[in-house]
Write a structure and sequence with these properties.
The complex is a heterodimer of chains A (1110) and B (239).
Chain A (H helix, E strand, L loop, with lengths): L5 H39 L10 H27 L2 H12 L5 H10 L7 H13 L5 H4 L1 H31 L1 H11 L2 H5 L8 E3 L3 E4 L5 E5 L5 E8 L5 E6 L4 E5 L7 E6 L9 E6 L4 E9 L9 E4 L6 E4 L3 E8 L3 E8 L2 E9 L2 E6 L5 E9 L10 E6 L5 E6 L4 E2 L5 E3 L1 E20 L5 E19 L2 E3 L10 E10 L6 E3 L3 E4 L3 H44 L11 H35 L5 H21 L1 H15 L7 H55 L5 H28 L3 H29 L3 H62 L4 H28 L4 H25 L7 H27 L7 H31 L6 H22 L12 H16 L5 H22 L14 H7 L6 H4 L7 H5 L3 H19 L5
Parallel strand pairs in A: 2-8, 11-17, 19-26
Antiparallel strand pairs in A: 1-3, 3-6, 4-5, 4-7, 7-8, 9-10, 9-12, 12-15, 13-14, 13-16, 14-15, 16-17, 18-21, 20-23, 21-22, 21-24, 24-25, 24-26
Chain B lengths: L3 H4 L5 E2 L1 H13 L3 H7 L8 E2 L8 H8 L5 H14 L2 H17 L4 H12 L3 H14 L5 H12 L4 H14 L6 H13 L5 H14 L6 H13 L12
Helix pairs in contact in B: 2-3, 4-5, 4-7, 5-6, 6-7, 6-9, 7-8, 8-9, 9-10, 10-11, 11-12, 11-13, 12-13
The chains are: A alpha+beta (1110), B mainly alpha (239).
């Protein structure tokens, strides 16, 4: 039995029906909406809705109609199915109850019949309910099933449409948006597109009277238009015109009076109204005006038909030629300026022609004598005569007085404009003399070809002018226009100044500092490149062994590209170095030569340039260029791997040299910083001293303030210098510069105090403070000088250290060689096999010695040469020892010992040289070694002179022998060569210590040579030669050592000696089988070379003669 | 004491420029033999040291003393160096290299120490220097230690080794230190139990002073010893 009441059961069935219908309607609404969207997408097309379409509205209306119909059906169905009777009948049918039982019971429950007890009603209800089972959906019966079907159909439809809409949105979103956007404004889409306004041609115009005016109506977007007109005093007229390609054409009636016309179109458009005015024929027909402009304007002739409506702008000198016909019997055509005729043109057979050149601006009227009555004259001619304007010239660069750049190449900019054209532009430069007058004026005129606007950017090159610091150059430009009387306009005179010597030195110093910074950057990159090249070369080396075409084998293209890249990087590096060098060179060239400070600075800068030049070297640069050209042309060098290795080695060498160069640059920059600061402080001190004496005079306060500012700037310079010194690792010198900076600060404060006192009129106080500032500056100067000296000692200390290390190293190697030598004789075979390796290690040690010496002897070629000689001997003897100890059949002990001992001696020589260099203060000076060289030179010259004396003596005995003249000439040449060698030796540093003046000795030798050349070989000449030899020997002996010596002594070939040494070999002269070289040849040699040559001849000739020699 | 200068007369002669010729011939390659052969044929000229001009040890000592003439003393040492054999020359030059650093108070004694070595008593000379070192009068003891070790080398290698250790410990950056390190390493390598110490010393020298002239020898020795089996423990071989 069911619970609840029967009425509740009926209510449940009704609610079920209502829900079903509601949901069905909602789903149907979704399906219809989807269908509208899909339909809109389909109907709108890819371009969207066209303006004026009604389809969106119809679609929407259709959809709404369907929904309305559905709604109405749903409502009516619900009304029908939800009635109690209808529902009760369906329940009865479903539950198998007697027809009317449910309905009766329901009615009884709603409206109890009077007299029927409630219990009975409820009993009846219970009886009915007990027979009803099932849910409301089942009890709904046929309506319920119908609603179920509708629900299914609506659901499927809604789902389908939803999917379709989603698909459209995804696949063609743009089309969908266009289509659906139209649905949101269906009425706007229905509106027609706006058409452009109607346009009439010719608009307002004056046309010949009686002519049928042709009118065009521009009516885009229309198919037809209507043309309306109305003449004054006439009825309106109209005509329909067909529009072809947007334009309709038609002819109005003949024009007899003023006529107004307009147009309309079916879309309601109305054009503006225009007026056509009839005109009478002109008295002057085919009027033609030919305009000839003056030649200077460069303008081409022009021709005008009729009188122009606007004023004619004519350059001065323009000629107008008038021609035409006079309608009727005209006699003369005149141009009138007021009452006066400015031009008259006679008429011949109805035609006239004539010229007129307007001299001034104005308006001229036409006048014709005769002509057809009623005809009108042309409008007045208005001319505007434009006079020629002078050109405009501006020189934006330099635009004022400037300092010349160190390149001595100054780019300037000249701009000239003229109304009719610029004839030429010229630039004038002149050196300002001492009195301000200009000398050496140079004018460079550039034709402009009549251009109205000219821009010139010349670069003034003063490199050949030999300008020096403080010189001034005057610069001005001129321009001329094209005209019968040309205008010439000149620019102001600009002064180009070379900085004064102090500024120039400052600039040069800045350049040195800049060069150091730039070189550091280049070095960083060179270091990275060196690593990259080494890696490249190593990889190439690894890949070299692999089979061609195999894995890891490099392709030729890649090889070439790698090479090209490496070469280009080196090329770039070389160019950057050249740039640094060029900047230094510019600074050096600009330095004045008169001032020793400049000369000194220029010399230092030149040295830095040379260092930079040596970083790559001309040969390497040449090879680099050749390789680069080869690789850029697409060729692969013969052995790319080897080339890569070469590049890698070269790059490392470049890096090493750059490191050294950078160090030199850095030191040079600091040194110049010191010198610049010293110079400035010294100048400040002097100026302050002068000012202190003039304190109280006019302008002294301002001068004092200026000096204070400069002192403060010098202090800042000291701070910068101190930082640079400290970064270079010399804190003590840095500390002293700090102290100097403190003094400068104090000086600046004193100066400020002096200025303050001066302003307050306290002259005594001002002088006192100024003197105090002077004392501060003097102390600062002293400290800067001390700091510089201390700083300058640093490389000497380094050099000393290097020489001490070399001396110790050479002695150590010598000791090791000595130990090995002692083992040669006692060693067994096993030990002997090791000797060669040990000798090689000593040899490598000698190489290290050379490397260590190279940087510290670079500036002392003589010392470097001495070391090279000693090291060369050490290498030679060590190699020989290696060969001897390494021979397969066993060492040749005595010979090995001999060469080993020679090697030890050579190493001792190296040590001795190094110790001598240490003794000379680590400056790499020659010291004792230099003196020894001088001694050796003198001894050798003495030996040569001795041989020469003997030759002279022999020749003196038989002056008439064959060939004696030639021999005498040879002897004179040898004597002159010895004199020349002595002259050069007189400049030797050790020569000052000699008791004999070598220059005087040289002059004596030259005198003897002259006597010999004149054929004088008498006793006096020989005596003079002997005395000359004595002096030569005594000079060398005195220097060499004190006390007696058993060395050779000069002997004069005089009678006494002749007796002692007699008999001299008969063929003594013949012994000089090899004639001495000529004087010219000997003079071309250095003293050392000359000595070698003379000794060689002496030795050979003596040996030939059996005269001795070991 | 006899005057070593008088007792060992010696004369050498030669042209400074023949060295240039030797260097040139060496550059030609394989010409060392010719170079050496050429040297004795050169005539006597240039510098030479006649026996009768050789300064005595006392003279040199006096010149190098506080009241002397340093330059003359140096020249005297140079002359004595050239007058002797290569070993003597080496010792005199070693002394010459130390002069600036040991000071004029000590220099005369150092001269006598080297002269003793010249006379055949190097160990006595070494002890003379040791006495100086113990007296702590030297401005810089490192050169004296090195010289003392050099003189003791032949007759008392243990003392020489001790002096080198002292030098290395107290003055590791002295110019004499690299050679002392090499020699001490060689000494240590000869003792089986201290072989690793010797290798470590060599390695330190190679790494810290790669550009010193004795480093190639150190490198060669290091490579050889790294691959060789340790020998039996035995007294040090002559260095």
């Amino acid at each position: 039995m069911r619970s609840g009441s029967l009425l509740q059961l009926l209510g449940g069935v009704r609610a079920h029906l209502a829900r079903g219908l509601g949901v069905s309607f909602a789903l149907a609404t979704g399906a219809v909406g989807g269908a509208i969207l899909v339909g809109a997408w389909w109907l709108a097309g890819p371009e969207g809705w066209r303006q004026g379409t009604r389809v969106p509205l119809l679609l929407l209306l259709g959809g709404v109609s369907v929904l309305l119909a559905l709604g109405v059906w749903s409502w009516l169905s619900f009304r029908r199915w939800s009635r109690d009777g209808s529902m009760a009948a369906e329940i009865e049918r479903t539950a198998g109850l007697p027809r009317g039982s449910v309905r009766a019971q329901a009615e009884l429950l709603r409206t109890p019949t009077p007299g029927v007890s409630a219990a009975l009603i409820h009993a009846g209800e219970g009886g009915v309910l007990s027979r009803i089972s099932g849910a409301a959906a089942e009890l709904a019966g046929a309506p319920g099933r119908k609603i179920g079907r509708v629900l299914a159909v609506a659901g499927v439809g809604a789902a389908t449409m939803l999917l379709a809409v989603a698909a459209l949105l995804v696949t063609s979103s743009e089309r969908a948006v266009l289509a659906w956007e139209g649905l949101s404004r269906p009425t706007a889409l229905m509106a027609r597109a706006a058409l452009p306004a109607l346009e009439l041609r010719p608009g307002d115009a004056r046309l010949p009277r009686g002519e049928r005016p042709e009118v065009e109506v521009v009516a885009a977007g229309r198919e037809q238009v209507e043309l309306h007109w109305q003449a004054v005093g006439d009825v309106p007229g109209r005509m329909g015109l067909e529009v072809v390609y947007g334009v309709a054409e038609g002819r109005l009636p003949p024009l007899e009076g003023v006529l107004e016309y307009w147009a309309t179109s079916p879309d309601g458009a109305l054009s503006a109204r225009h007026v056509l005015t009839p005109g009478d024929p002109s008295l002057l027909q085919d009027l033609r005006i030919d305009i000839s402009y003056p030649a200077y304007t460069g303008l081409l002739p022009e021709t005008l038909r009729g009188v122009p409506p606007r004023p004619l702008r004519l350059p001065e000198g323009t000629q107008l030629t008038f021609s035409g016909q006079v309608d009727g019997e005209g006699e003369e055509v005149r141009l009138l300026d007021g009452e006066a005729a400015v031009a008259r043109f006679p008429v011949d057979a109805g035609e006239f022609t004539g010229t007129w050149s307007p001299a001034r601006s104005g308006r001229v009227e036409w006048s014709v004598s005769g002509g057809r009555p009623g005809a009108v004259l042309p409008a007045a001619l208005e001319v505007e005569v434009q006079p020629d304007q002078p050109p405009i010239l501006v020189v934006p660069l330099p635009g004022g007085d400037v300092d010349l750049p160190l390149t001595l190449r100054l780019p300037i900019l000249v701009q000239a404009v003229d109304d009719h054209g610029v004839a030429w532009v010229e630039v004038e430069t002149a050196l300002a003399g001492a009195d301000g007058a200009e000398v050496g004026t140079v004018v460079d005129r550039i034709p402009a070809g009549g251009r109205t606007s000219v821009v010139l950017r010349p670069v003034l090159d003063f490199t050949e002018w030999g300008l020096r610091a403080g010189d001034e150059v005057h610069l001005r430009a001129r321009v001329s226009d094209q005209a019968p009387s040309p205008h010439v306009v000149a620019s102001p005179t600009y002064v180009l100044r070379m900085p004064d010597p102090a500024q120039m030195r400052e600039i040069a110093r800045e350049r040195v500092q800049g060069a150091a910074e730039r070189t550091r950057e280049i070095l960083d990159r060179a270091g990275r490149d060196a690593t990259a090249f080494r890696e490249l070369a190593r990889r190439a080396e690894l890949e070299r062994g692999r089979p061609p075409g195999g894995a890891g084998q490099r392709e030729p293209f890649r090889e070439r590209e790698e090479l090209r890249d490496a070469l280009e990087r080196q090329d770039e590096l070389a160019r950057e170095l050249e740039e640094v060098q060029t900047r230094l060179e510019e600074a050096r060239r600009a330095l004045a030569e008169e001032d020793p400070r400049d000369t000194e600075l220029a010399e230092r800068v030149r040295e830095l340039e040379r260092l930079l030049e040596e970083v790559l070297g001309p040969e390497a640069r040449e090879r680099l260029n050749a390789l680069l050209e080869e690789v850029r042309s697409g060729e692969t060098p013969a052995d790319p791997d080897e080339l890569l290795s070469e590049l890698s080695r070269r790059q490392e060498a470049i890096r090493d040299r750059l490191e050294e160069t950078l160090e030199r640059l850095r030191r040079a920059a600091i040194e110049e910083g010191f010198r610049g600061l010293e110079e400035e402080v010294s100048t400040l001190a002097q100026e302050e001293r002068d000012l202190a004496q003039q304190m109280g005079s006019e302008g002294s306060v301002e001068s004092q303030e200026e000096l204070a500012r400069r002192t403060e700037a010098a202090r800042e310079g000291a701070v910068e210098l101190e930082e640079r010194i400290r970064s270079g690792g010399d804190p003590e010198a840095g500390d002293q510069v700090v102290e100097a900076g403190a003094e400068l600060q104090a000086a600046a404060e004193s100066m400020a105090g002096a200025a303050e006192a001066g302003r307050e009129g306290d002259e005594a106080g001002a002088v006192e403070r100024a003197n105090e500032a002077v004392r501060n500056l003097e102390r600062a100067l002293e400290q800067i000088e001390e700091a510089r000296e201390q700083w300058a000692d640093e490389p000497q200390a380094d050099a000393r250290e290097a020489f001490v290390e070399v001396a110790q190293g050479a002695l150590a190697l010598s000791r090791r060689q000595g130990e090995l030598r002692r083992e040669f004789r006692i060693a067994g075979p096993a030990r002997r096999s090791q000797f060669e390796g040990e000798e090689a290690a000593i040899l490598a040690g000698v190489g290290q010695l050379a490397d260590r010496l190279e940087p510290v002897t670079r500036d002392t070629p003589e010392l470097a040469e001495a070391f090279a000689r000693a090291l060369g001997e050490a290498v030679a003897t060590l190699e020989l020892t290696m060969q001897r100890v390494g021979r397969a059949q066993g060492p040749q002990i005595p010979q090995s010992e001999e060469s080993a001992e020679a090697a030890e001696r050579a190493l001792h020589e190296v040590a001795l040289l190094a110790l001598t260099a240490v003794d000379s203060g680590g400056e790499g000076g020659e010291g004792g070694s230099s003196l020894e060289d001088l001694l050796a030179e003198l001894a050798a010259l003495a030996a040569s002179q001795e041989a020469l004396n003997q030759g002279t003596g022999s020749l003196g005995e038989d002056p008439g022998a064959d060939g004696s003249a030639d021999r005498l000439d040879e002897l004179a040449g040898a004597q002159a060569a010895i004199a020349g060698a002595l002259d050069e030796l007189s400049g030797h540093p050790g020569a000052q210590e000699l008791p004999t003046d070598l220059r005087e000795l040289s002059e004596e030798g030259a005198g003897i040579a002259e006597e010999l050349r004149q054929g004088r070989i008498d006793a006096m000449t020989q005596e003079r030669q002997a005395r000359f030899l004595d002096l030569l020997l005594s000079a060398g002996r005195t220097l060499e050592r004190d006390g007696p010596t058993d060395e050779r002594e000069g002997t004069a070939p005089g009678p006494v000696q002749r007796g002692v040494v007699s008999p001299l070999p008969e063929g003594l002269l013949d012994a000089l089988a090899l004639p001495l070289p000529s004087t010219e040849a000997l003079e071309a040699l250095t003293p050392g070379q000359r000595r070698l040559v003379l000794e060689y001849f002496d030795r050979v000739n003596r040996r030939e003669s059996g005269a001795g020699g070991p | 004491m006899t005057d070593p200068g008088r007792s060992t007369p010696h004369t050498r002669s030669g042209y400074p420029w023949h060295c240039a010729a030797l260097g040139f011939l060496a550059l030609v390659g394989g010409a060392g033999e010719r170079a050496l052969a050429a040297a004795p044929t050169l005539p006597g000229a240039g510098w030479s040291v006649p026996a009768d001009t050789l300064p005595s040890v006392d003279e040199i000592a006096a010149w190098l003393g506080p009241e002397g003439d340093l330059e003359r003393g140096r020249e005297g040492i140079r002359l004595r160096a050239r007058a002797g054999g290569t070993d003597e020359e080496n010792r005199w030059l070693q002394l010459l290299s130390a002069l600036d650093r040991i000071g004029s108070e000590i220099a005369p004694t150092a001269v006598r120490a080297v002269a003793l070595s010249e006379e055949g008593n190097p160990l006595e000379g070494s002890h003379l220097l040791l006495d100086l070192l113990d007296g702590s009068d030297a401005q810089e003891p490192a050169p004296l230690m090195a010289l003392a070790a050099l003189l003791a080398e032949r007759d008392d290698p243990i003392l020489a080794a001790e002096l080198r250790v002292r030098l290395l410990e107290t003055h590791p950056t002295a110019p004499e230190a690299p050679e002392a390190g090499l020699r001490h390493a060689r000494w240590l390598l000869s003792i089986v139990s201290r072989r690793e110490e010797g290798l470590a010393l060599l390695e330190e020298l190679i790494v810290s002073r790669p550009e010193h002239p004795v480093t190639p020898e150190a490198r060669r020795l290091f490579l050889r010893e790294r691959t060789a089996a340790p020998a039996t423990d035995s007294p040090a071989a002559p260095l």
